[in-house]
């Protein structure tokens, strides 16, 4: 039976990216050696990092003055590296869920944290609007897509202070105006690559403004200076990222990814809104195109396990909602096909007609 991978992360990747990564793990570019066993300083690996950076810059139209880094540690390590490198006195955070809260927790170790707004009052089902950003903050931190709650801030906001964004789960799903950001970061394991590498897009002249000493590995300047090669980077995940970047480019770039994301969302949200059994959890103007969250209506709550079992029997994988929201979540990252969304819709329709 065909499986449809709606996992929230690590998650679906294009088949060709998986096949080519697997092939390189057996024999990297006809070298007779596995990609797993070569030096990161090998002559044939440097071009991988170089091309990955070039494609990042090309696909996201990154202006001069920015550097792209490939690091270890996950987005979670960035939660601490950001205040280490940017927080002198006070930082502003927009609280849109668990990941934003975790980022705030780390920042509190370094200075004052101002929560500019929070959607905790409604279990993070919306993105707050019209919040005030303190002009004396060292930076404003936002989470553009909230993987757990299915909410997304799909426009690049204007900030009077340096803007820093966690784009773990929506990078490369739409064009972004990178010039509005001091730093953008994320774990790779949703729209970029297999798990194991963290991307950071950083405006170089925003670094070096804090007075504290920064441990070498946690100082962005170390990695900028050494081109992500200060220590051994995650070699295989970086290669899989390169393959996926080539794939995105061949598909028509982030504009094409955005169009696909809109088409997928129309299909799945359309069904959620039509189906008598289900209701979406996120407020309509905050709906994520990447993580589509929905629950059974109160009168059908007892069908929870039955729907999970039914969806599984139809090949749907990973549609169980996060425990903080309950219900269901269909993560529709770049590699999810229209056919996959149509299969999910058919499954929801059939389940409805059985009840
Ligand atoms: N931020 C967001 C928005 C996420 O979805 C996740 C992981 N799901 C993280 C941060 C944490 O990422 P990592 O596991 O790479 O540390």
Describe the secondary-structure layout.
Blueprint: E1 4-5, H1 15-26, H2 46-59, E2 66-71, H3 74-86, E3 90-95, H4 98-107, E4 112-118, E5 140-143, E6 145-146, E7 151-152, E8 163-166, E9 183-187, E10 198-203, H5 220-225, H6 235-250, H7 253-274, E11 278-280, E12 291-296, H8 304-313, E13 316-317, E14 328-331, H9 338-353
4'-deoxy-4'-aminopyridoxal-5'-phosphate (PMP) binds next to helix 3.
Task: Characterise the protein shown here.
The structure is a single chain. With 355 residues, the chain is of the alpha/beta class. It has 2 domains: 15-250, 3-Layer(aba) Sandwich (Aspartate Aminotransferase, domain 2), CATH 3.40.640.10; 253-353, Aspartate Aminotransferase, domain 1 (Alpha-Beta Complex). It has 9 helices and 14 strands. It has helices at 15-26, 46-59, 74-86, 98-107, 220-225, 235-250, 253-274, 304-313, 338-353, and strands at residues 4-5, 66-71, 90-95, 112-118, 140-143, 145-146, 151-152, 163-166, 183-187, 198-203, 278-280, 291-296, 316-317, 328-331. The strands form 4 sheets. A 7-stranded mixed beta sheet has the order 2-10-9-8-5-3-4, with helices on both faces. The chain has a 3-stranded antiparallel beta sheet with strand order 11-12-14, with helices on one face. Helix 2 (46-59) runs parallel beside helix 6, helix 3 (74-86) packs parallel to helix 4 (98-107) and helix 7 packs parallel to helix 9. It is globular, with a radius of gyration of 21 Å. The chain starts with a strand and ends with a helix. The relative contact order is 0.17. The model has no long low-confidence stretch (mean pLDDT 98). The structure holds 4'-deoxy-4'-aminopyridoxal-5'-phosphate (PMP). 4'-deoxy-4'-aminopyridoxal-5'-phosphate (PMP) binds at residues 9, 74-76, 99, 143, 147, 166, 168-169, 187. 4'-deoxy-4'-aminopyridoxal-5'-phosphate is lined by residues 9, 74-76, 99, 143, 147, 166, 168-169, 187.
């Amino acid at each position: 039976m065909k499986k449809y991978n709606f996992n929230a992360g690590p998650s679906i990747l294009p088949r060709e990216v998986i096949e080519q990564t697997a092939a390189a793990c057996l024999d990297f570019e006809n070298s007779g050696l596995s990609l797993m066993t070569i030096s990161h300083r090998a002559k044939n690996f440097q071009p991988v990092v170089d091309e990955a950076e070039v494609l990042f810059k090309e696909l996201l139209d990154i202006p001069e003055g920015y550097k792209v880094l490939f690091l270890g540690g996950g987005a979670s390590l960035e939660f601490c590296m950001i205040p280490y490198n940017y927080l002198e006195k006070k930082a502003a955070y927009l609280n849109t869920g668990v990941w934003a809260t975790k980022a705030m927790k780390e920042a509190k170790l370094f200075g004052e944290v101002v929560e500019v707004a929070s959607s905790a009052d409604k279990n993070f089902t919306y993105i707050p609007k019209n919040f005030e950003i303190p002009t004396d903050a060292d930076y404003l931190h936002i989470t553009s897509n909230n993987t757990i709650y299915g909410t997304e801030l799909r426009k690049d906001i204007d900030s009077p202070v340096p803007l820093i964004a966690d784009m773990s789960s929506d990078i490369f799903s739409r064009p972004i105006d990178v010039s509005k950001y001091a730093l953008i970061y994320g774990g790779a394991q949703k729209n970029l690559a297999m798990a194991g590498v963290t991307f950071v897009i950083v405006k170089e002249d925003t670094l070096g403004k804090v007075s504290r000493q920064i441990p070498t590995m946690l100082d962005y300047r170390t990695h900028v200076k050494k081109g992500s090669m200060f220590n051994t980077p995650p070699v295989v995940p970086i290669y899989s990222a390169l393959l996926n970047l080539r794939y995105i480019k061949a598909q028509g770039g982030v504009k094409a990814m955005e169009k696909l994301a809109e088409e997928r969302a129309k299909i799945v949200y359309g069904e959620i809104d039509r189906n008598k059994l289900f209701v979406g959890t996120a407020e309509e103007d905050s709906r994520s195109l990447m993580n589509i969250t929905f629950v059974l209506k109160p009168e059908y709550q007892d069908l929870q396990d039955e729907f999970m079992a039914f969806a599984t029997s139809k090949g749907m994988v990973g549609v169980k909602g996060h425990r903080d929201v309950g219900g269901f979540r269909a993560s529709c990252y770049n590699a999810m096909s229209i056919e996959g969304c149509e299969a999910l819709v058919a499954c929801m329709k059939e389940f409805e007609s059985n009840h």
